[in-house]
Write a structure and sequence with these properties.
This protein is of the alpha+beta class. It is 49% helix and 12% strand.
């Protein structure tokens, strides 16, 4: 007797963007939800998304430092779970706002605050349903050379320096100019 197994497609972190999905410049961050520097960087990213609306898109990749922050893994899994309901950015911000309270039961409460109505949310967290996606991000960050958080990349190039609004704005301006210079060449060809 054959069993019909339901195939569930999981939206992976590398496919979750905030901002203009077709923007020519991608700002990618490797971070985690218990890290104070990542929380500060999140505020900077919000400002950048506003300043460069339509010109950039943002992709957050999970890099939980579980030796330092034991709850960062489940928090990352909860963000991936939220992405399945189209609520990644809402959950992402709620997690940073509650970074000192990220136990599994608290994550369920935070999901409600983010507007997630999925009844399986807590089960998915307890069962580690999205753990592989977080592990994939962690491995990718290691391959990219991430050593400390937050780590930013602009159009796949590592951002060097302190991730302040001024520094990231300057780097984004340069990336936008670089993309604009390349576009006329494509039109001539």
């Amino acid at each position: 007797m054959a069993f019909n197994k339901e195939v569930i497609e999981i939206i992976k972190p590398q496919d979750v963007f905030v901002g203009n999905i077709s923007a020519p410049v991608t700002l990618m961050e490797f971070g985690e939800y218990e890290n104070e520097d990542c929380a500060k960087a999140n505020e900077v990213v919000k400002q950048l998304l506003e300043k460069y609306e339509g010109k950039i898109r943002f992709n957050f990749r999970h890099f939980p430092l579980t030796l330092v922050h034991q709850r960062s893994m489940k928090a990352s899994e909860s963000a991936v779970a939220a992405a399945q309901s189209g609520k990644f950015w809402e959950m992402h911000n709620v997690l940073f706002n509650n970074r000192r309270n990220l136990g599994t039961v608290s994550l369920k409460l935070h999901s409600k605050e983010a507007g997630i109505r999925d009844k399986k949310f807590l089960d998915d967290l307890v069962n580690g349903t999205f753990g592989w996606q977080v592990q994939d991000d962690l491995k990718y960050g290691i391959i990219k050379g991430v050593k400390e958080l937050p780590a930013f990349f602009i159009n796949d190039e590592p951002f060097i320096g302190k991730p302040t609004f001024a520094n990231l704005s300057s780097a984004l301006e340069a990336a936008i100019k670089k993309v604009k210079k390349k576009s006329p060449e494509k039109k001539r060809a």
